[in-house]
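With this grant's support, we have settled on a layout for protein records. A representative record follows, to show the layout.
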Amino acid sequence: MHPNFENTATAFQLKTDSELERAYFLFRLIANEPLVKIGTAVTNFALKAHLPIEGLVRATVFDHFCGGVNEEDCLPIIDKMYGKGVCSILDYSVEGKEIEDQFDFALSKTLEVLNFVKEKDAIPFAVFKPTGFGRFELYEKVSAGIALNEEESQAWERILNRYDQVCKKAHDLEVALLIDAEESWMQDAADDITLDMMRKYNTKKTIVYNTLQMYRWDRMDYLKKILDIAKSEGFKIGLKVVRGAYMEKENDRAEEMGYQSPICASKKATDENFDAAITFMMEHLNSLSIFAGTHNEESCLKLIKQMEEKGVAPNDSNIWFGQLYGMSDHITYNLTAEEFNAAKYVPYGPVKDVMPYLIRRAEENTSVAGQTTRELSLLQKEKKRRKLDL
């Protein structure tokens, strides 16, 4: 059965009328680019000036896009979604940290979440960001082949150790682990570590997943390369496939520094690249596992069609769909209604520390043509449906 992405009754079944109104209000704001820029500037100023705005943020944008301030705080949402077949991926979304104590804290958080995940069927994956475990500049230097001094070498060893601790624990607990992707100029180093973790821990089943940002035109070649390595060395590949999250920053840096942008020339080219990666991966399902992180209905339907053609069951453990909490409920809930594996990325953390994530989320929604318009039209459709049902 194909999911019906127009079914708003299923999509918004967990939202109260007031939550529906809040979502509509937030996406109306996000649709206004000048307002997003002003709101971002004002919010940043208020946080730096220690103005008491956390309550307002918590009641609006935070509660819509985040699960809570800690793991326990997220549990009611996790359990409620799981009641409708939707799994959760807890994402400790604190960004921009720079000191060793903070990296050790992120490590301990990820290890805690792995224990949490092991006990909850509703949470099939754990996740972390490379820069949660070490300084961006170190990844950048290693990616560029620049020699590290003694202090930097020691810090790099600590990064490698953090990766290994988390991947080993995930392997021992048999919990799948997603490793996010970041900016292209630091990604080579992160890719190399993650490939080593797959070599070590993906020998019997897929535990460690890397992330491919398919708005990069070079990622198909990388995908083919690592699959060849995995086949020749006898381990499995796990890949979360997404379009990407840093497009403006990537293009601006390429222009400023005078090199070819790593980003596809158009949205159409990105869509084609994403779909090509999924098609290629579907040809090699015996060697890899797919996590399709997408808010694009067409890409979801193309993957579903290929699953049907190959006789792959909707709930096959090698294929997952994923969307962000607070977005694309029409995809997630209608997928699980037809028994496909689907999960929400559920960001959490202290309100103040999660603000960089929330600001990025608002800016991305503003810059993606059609995304916010689609959310608004579906919310409006559900509001009308509920009025008619009264």
Observations:
- The longest strand covers residues 342-348.
- The mean pLDDT is 91.
- The CA atoms of residues 141 and 364 lie 27 Å apart.
